[in-house]
Specification:
Helix content is about 30%, strand content about 20%. It is built from 22 helices and 26 strands.
């Protein structure tokens, strides 16, 4: 380590001298500046030079860096923060779904649902070729799969393929016309092993009801017509626009090589599975990728270390694309918790099936895979919903730590159920908790599709944000868009209230907003392995900034939920501006 000290000192001196001589090309002053830096959490003003933070401090100190050519923005007391960072999202898929017929998790009576689908079809938003596809469908419909079948397998629907795509990305429903087209019938179910047959809900005579989960759902999703390249490129642009509008300037794409409607759950990727990466490159080449994309590549849950050559070759194809980085690998450890899917791996069996869900990773060998991922210089980002999946993921990280004591910023996302024994292990192992706390609400998902099927003890620790934070875990914010909104302000407020239409989901696990501000800035940057470049307002970091319409430190949780971004800057340039928001106000 000593050999690096002189060069570091020289760099620091050079930067200090350069800062003293430089004139800022942009100063933002007279504001409430949240820096996300522990030594200087609040300031008044920020100076920017060549797209990077030059200095943060008082109005007097910052305005002294301005000259005649400097743009001056008077914040008029408004809050300025680092750009928000999302540590688990599928933005292109989210934007694509927003361009099509989408229920956005709304539950309608079946007669009303049918009428709505007919209207969407008439409007031209529902079809992929001749198949009617509805996105964003709530899991609450699946418990009534037979009622869906009764309505949508007769009359106009007898020969019209219809697919209801679950908002969770793990489940869906298809009518008989569609099931026939993809070959899902009683004969298929009869020929499958118990695990695979379990992904296709069926009657006692093996006739499918239409509800499908995981690999069963992939049998339909994978056969849907692919959207055109033009539509996918439009969706990628829309993903950037929507994120910038809510203040998100960086995200972790949690399945960048997974593509659109293909199998994800137990995907065995090849070098040809490029997913949305060519779309990001195309936007970057046009100068339109005004966000940081940290792309995770999927690996099969039971990959061998040698299998990682596939991901390495894909990464090489996109080396050097501006604003696109490759921090590591995404792996599914399990599925979803909600009835009737129940593919999340749990410690205590589900009360209805007496099964423990699907643990996709092999506990005996997963640690070796994690160690091999580290040897490549990558992180592992694990989808783990059930407490058993969380425990086995941590066991693998513990195995890797025994081989290499220096922590690598691996992360586990979702964390719907976590056994209390695991709380301190996050800090001990340096594992980041990537949490979608917009989901921490008392609603049909948690109260009707989970609570009746798990033990009371287990249910107490659903989305245990405060317990993890108290135990020293690094909490990072995430959306899992399109499963839920990419708007971080909704999630930050929800993390505090945990309230919903059916009450409050364990208020003991609420977490304060300043912790969440940190979760969506510097903590999230660590998860993306970009904390040296972004995540806080410190000299030398990229000037990704957002100006807000309200005092987010003082407003109520309800007002916080509705926070609007007035201006978003990426590398010091305004890339989103709310209507009627002046970009520059000259200093008086």
């Amino acid at each position: 380590m000593k050999r690096f000290i002189p060069s570091l000192l020289a760099s620091a001196v050079a930067f200090s001298s350069m800062e003293a001589m430089a004139a800022a090309d942009l100063v933002l002053f007279n504001g409430q500046v949240f820096t996300a830096e522990s030594g200087q959490p609040r300031a008044q003003a920020v100076a920017v030079e060549n797209g990077k933070i030059l200095r943060v401090g008082s109005d007097k100190a910052i305005l002294a860096l301005a000259d005649a050519d400097t743009r001056r923005v008077d914040l008029a007391g408004k809050v300025l923060m680092p750009g928000m960072i999302d540590t688990h999202s599928h933005p292109v898929m989210g934007a694509l779904a927003s361009l099509r017929a989408n229920l956005y998790d709304e539950v309608k009576p079946l007669a009303e649902l049918e009428q709505w689908i007919v209207e969407q079809d008439a409007a031209g938003t529902a079809r992929l070729d001749d198949i009617i596809v509805i996105d964003g469908v709530s899991s609450a419909y699946w418990k009534d799969s037979r009622a869906l079948a009764k309505r949508f397998n007769q009359g106009r629907w007898a020969e019209q393929p219809l697919v209801l795509s679950g908002i969770d990305g793990h489940t869906g429903w298809a009518n008989q016309a569609m099931l026939r087209r993809v070959g899902i019938d009683a004969a298929l179910v009869k020929g499958l092993d118990a695990k695979e047959a379990g992904y296709i809900e069926h009657e006692s005579d093996l006739t499918p009801t239409g509800f499908l989960s995981e690999n069963g759902w992939d049998r339909v999703r994978g056969k849907l017509p692919k959207p055109s390249h033009e539509l996918m490129l439009k969706a990628t642009r829309e993903a950037v626009r929507i994120n910038l509008e809510v203040g998100v300037t960086a995200w972790m794409d949690a399945a960048a090589n997974g593509g659109g409607e293909q199998s994800l759950f137990e995907m065995r990727p090849t070098e040809k599975d490029l997913g949305v990466l060519p779309l990001y490159r195309q936007l970057a080449e046009k100068g339109e990728l005004n966000v940081h994309v940290a792309a995770l590549l999927l690996a099969h849950p039971q990959s061998k270390p040698d299998d990682l050559k596939v991901q390495a070759k894909v990464m090489q194809q996109f080396h050097g694309v501006p604003n696109l980085s490759f921090p590591g690998i995404k792996i599914f450890a399990d599925g979803v918790l909600e009835f009737p899917g129940q593919t999340a791996a749990v410690i205590d069996p589900y009360t209805n099936s007496h099964k423990q869900g699907q643990l996709l990773i092999d506990p005996q060998n997963f640690g070796k895979l994690v160690a091999a991922i580290e040897q490549q210089g990558w992180i592992a980002h694990i989808h783990a919903v059930g407490d058993r999946a969380v425990r086995e993921s941590l066991n693998a990280f513990e195995y890797a730590r025994a081989l290499k004591p220096t922590p690598v910023p691996h992360s586990i996302s979702h964390l719907q159920l976590v056994n209390p024994k695991e709380f301190p292990r996050f800090k001990q192992l340096g594992v980041i908790a990537s949490m979608q706390l917009l989901w921490a609400t008392a609603e049909s998902y948690t109260e009707e599709l989970v609570k009746p099927y798990v033990s009371a003890y287990t249910y107490r620790y659903q989305y245990p944000a405060r317990s993890l934070h108290k135990a020293g875990a690094t909490i990072a914010g995430a959306s899992d868009w399109p499963v839920s909104s990419p708007n971080p302000w909704n999630a930050i407020a929800q993390a505090s209230t945990r309230s919903g239409p059916l009450g409050v989901l364990n208020s003991a696990e609420s977490i304060d907003r300043e912790t969440m501000f940190q979760a969506y800035t510097l903590n999230a940057a660590k998860a993306l392995r970009l904390e040296q470049q972004i995540g806080s307002l410190a000299p030398g970091k990229q000037a990704d900034l957002i100006v807000l319409d309200r005092d987010v430190f003082k407003v109520s949780d309800a007002e916080l939920f509705d926070t609007q971004v007035l201006t978003t800057y990426f590398a010091g340039q305004p890339v989103y501006q709310a209507a009627a928001t002046p970009d520059v106000a000259q200093a008086q």
